[in-house]
Amino acid sequence: MIKKARLFTPGPTALHPDVQLALGRPIVHHRTDEFRALLKECSAGLKEFFRTQDDVLVLASSGTGGMEAAVVNLLSPGDKMLALVAGNFGERWEKIGKSYGMNVTSLTAQWGEAVSPAEVAAALDRDPEIKAVFCQLSESSTGACHDVKALAEITRNRPKTLLVVDAISGAGAMQLETAEWGIDVVVVGSQKALALPPGLAFISVSQRAWERVDASTAPRFYFDLKRERKSQAGGETGFTPAISHIVALKASLDFIAGLGGVAKLVENAGLLAGMTRAAAHALRLPLVAPKAYGDALTALYPPQGIESGAIVKGLKADYMSTVAGGQGALKGKIFRIAHLGYYDVTDILGLIGTLEVVLKRLGYSFELGQGVAAAQGELLRRTGARG
Amino acid sequence: MIKKARLFTPGPTALHPDVQLALGRPIVHHRTDEFRALLKECSAGLKEFFRTQDDVLVLASSGTGGMEAAVVNLLSPGDKMLALVAGNFGERWEKIGKSYGMNVTSLTAQWGEAVSPAEVAAALDRDPEIKAVFCQLSESSTGACHDVKALAEITRNRPKTLLVVDAISGAGAMQLETAEWGIDVVVVGSQKALALPPGLAFISVSQRAWERVDASTAPRFYFDLKRERKSQAGGETGFTPAISHIVALKASLDFIAGLGGVAKLVENAGLLAGMTRAAAHALRLPLVAPKAYGDALTALYPPQGIESGAIVKGLKADYMSTVAGGQGALKGKIFRIAHLGYYDVTDILGLIGTLEVVLKRLGYSFELGQGVAAAQGELLRRTGARG
To answer: What DSSP string runs through B205-240?
Structure first.
């Protein structure tokens, strides 16, 4: 049987074909007018993607490098930081902070839930010396999301407290209005909604965050944002850029512009997520984050008596579709289906169709086609008379 | 909404990714040892694909060029030829024959049916001077197929009568045993089960067919098979070959070998065709060829009161999936879904899922998911406990 390899993981995601073609182009040199013009075009496109006129800098690193850059450029050792921990990636903020000697306080949500803005406001009221709040837009380990808009309403009127958002897997899949909402720093990765391979991180820095960078004494070299700001204003990066990725980034930004902008990309993920939740409901597969789900991915518990690992393995072995298992505390307990990036209705109907067959093979009792039918119904409900 | 372009047409079909990469390689020269070795490897792989040790020659042309090559190399003007006409492509044999002054007799089936071997035997008994029978393995205009095995049983014991099979869209989707069944000439095109772009035709020639080539006086230059046989035995083509296509052909043949050979490719098309017929039955969409269907494609009538063109347009406009409309006498009356080539279960479940949504939007009354459920049931029935 032919089995086409398909990734339905919350990173890496499917590459856009124009990205693939761009990655295959001959290499160009980065200290040239041609490359400088390209990087400036990418910077302009990234600002549209981030919905801000703040600087958006490009780093040759994974998303975690962008998270570290946020911590080491904004804080000084001993500074108080508040981490909102709703899963595996929230814990990463704690670990980075502790690695650099920050005074880390955490607000922890049950996995599958989010930290409420009211809790954050109370914590900041108790300790006004907290220099920054760090959170995820989408917590990829559970599919939960933080109410970043409400969090920004809390921080933007507190002169001492910045808001730093890991939107690595959330940007491009859920609404994110960096400027309008007043978010100070946003981190994004290339292998998510932008449909690029891993290798680039992007970070936006607000005016008041730049003031903090001037005061920060945390040690840094590669992730020195002031150097990058100066270099990238001239179309160069401080160190050797991931050239082919940046050529491909332009192709990705052009694709998104052609689609009608990032709002359309967000709408697409929302449609696929809504179809997937409808299918999950019809198939009686519980959401991991029923009260705080986002649209970047859908995390699901398996039916009682069936191992989530058997579902992940069945989809891979039988149909070469890769969905993600659980991480950390949820390892072996859930499975996760991504919607961020370059996926369409035909993809998700095909995946739900094969998921049903895998569940049936594992002995789960339900009517074949009932998940697909619910997804089709949601599609009709959301798109009306025409697609 | 993101809409990925997908072809579900009986040619061109989806390119295999290794074919795409091969097409993108730097060009090589064709009068070199490197290319000669490549063409010889391709010839060996094509013999496995055709299931014969007969010569299989590569032509830079569409499939129709291969059909013309068969006529002009086997017959002389005024020779009697019998065309089995079950649709648009059967009519092409008549047109080519008449263009070269052959004495063309036809056996015509209702569109959607095939010419029966008994009719052919009777026609040959009536006129033993018929030099060759020309037919389609898969008649792409209706989805019907001829019983080529039974036809070969009739012709192989008649010294005067050759059997020429247009397997352009049938080979690799349905069983075809060129040597074992005793077929004299088989024509295949690149843009079908081989998952290449259009641009190459392949033609196998049996020993007794070569004897006929020596005697043929029909005019020919580009399609002179004797010249090609001599050139290609040495790894060269008579005229400039479509070099990149041949580089890609090797990638395609390697893919098929890795799958386990042409029988596995045939099994895959059979699975997808079976799933599609099950869905069609559940959705009450009549087969165009209910008594003679093949597995290369499924041709369907729309429900009463719905235009087939509206289905084709809806799938394209709403989901960017291209299925074929009707041709010739069936233009505007049917739609056709291909299974030949690089397609998998996830593809066909996604297509059936979107087809249902299109039908629902067009006002057709049925339960969403019922076609998908029937296809899933057929998948489980055919693949058993594991996929």
So the answer is: E-HHHHHHHHH-----STT-HHHHHHHHHTT--SS-
